[in-house]
Design brief:
Elements (H helix, E strand, L loop, with lengths): L9 H9 L3 E8 L7 E13 L2 E11 L5 E14 L2 E6 L8 E8 L4 E4 L3 E3 L2 E10 L2 E10 L2 E9 L1
Antiparallel strand pairs: 1-2, 1-11, 2-3, 3-4, 4-5, 5-6, 6-7, 7-9, 8-9, 9-10, 10-11
InterPro entries: DUF6314
Organism: Capsulimonas corticalis
Protein name: DUF6314 domain-containing protein
């Protein structure tokens, strides 16, 4: 896939996110405390305003032992400026969002988290690539006993 230059501002990133309808992910860990799985699902889009998009993700993931699990996530993407897009998890509802991070352009077709999201001893960061067919988002979870990588492909 060919990346879109980051001269494409946050409005264009949100336009690409609005076209997303499905996802696939792979999670891999270097420790027993981590998570190894593959999953896929669908994304329903709620456009709450021209500046915001809500992803309602549902699907399943499969553990290395073959056991299948369902998942449901709700994420809110908000355009804060030409150069900043915020990602929040709405697991506690729209009035109590959990800030994951703000993303800003970094190089050709790439957005990176400005700071990490701290959850107990683990720090979550991300890189996002805007592509012709969608968006790739790679989460990196680092802590004293783990380093996990979760790669999402949104199309």
């Amino acid at each position: 896939m060919k990346g879109i230059p980051t001269t494409e501002n946050s409005n264009r990133l949100l336009a690409r996110l609005r076209r997303v309808r499905q996802l696939a992910f792979t999670a891999s860990s270097n420790s027993d405390a981590g998570w190894n799985a593959k999953g896929e699902g669908v994304v329903a889009i709620d456009e709450t305003s021209p500046e915001q998009i809500v992803f309602r993700e549902t699907g399943h993931w499969i553990a290395p032992n073959g056991k299948r699990f369902r998942f449901h996530n709700v994420y809110r993407w908000t355009r804060l400026s030409e150069e900043v897009v915020r990602l929040e998890h709405l697991r506690m509802g729209v009035t109590r969002p959990v800030l994951l991070f703000d993303l800003t352009p970094s190089g050709e077709a790439c957005w990176v988290s400005v700071t990490g999201h701290q959850c107990k001893q683990d720090c979550y960061t991300a890189e996002l690539w805007v592509e012709e067919s969608g968006v790739q988002l790679e989460w990196i979870v680092e802590g004293p006993e783990r380093r996990d990588v979760i790669g999402y492909v949104y199309e």
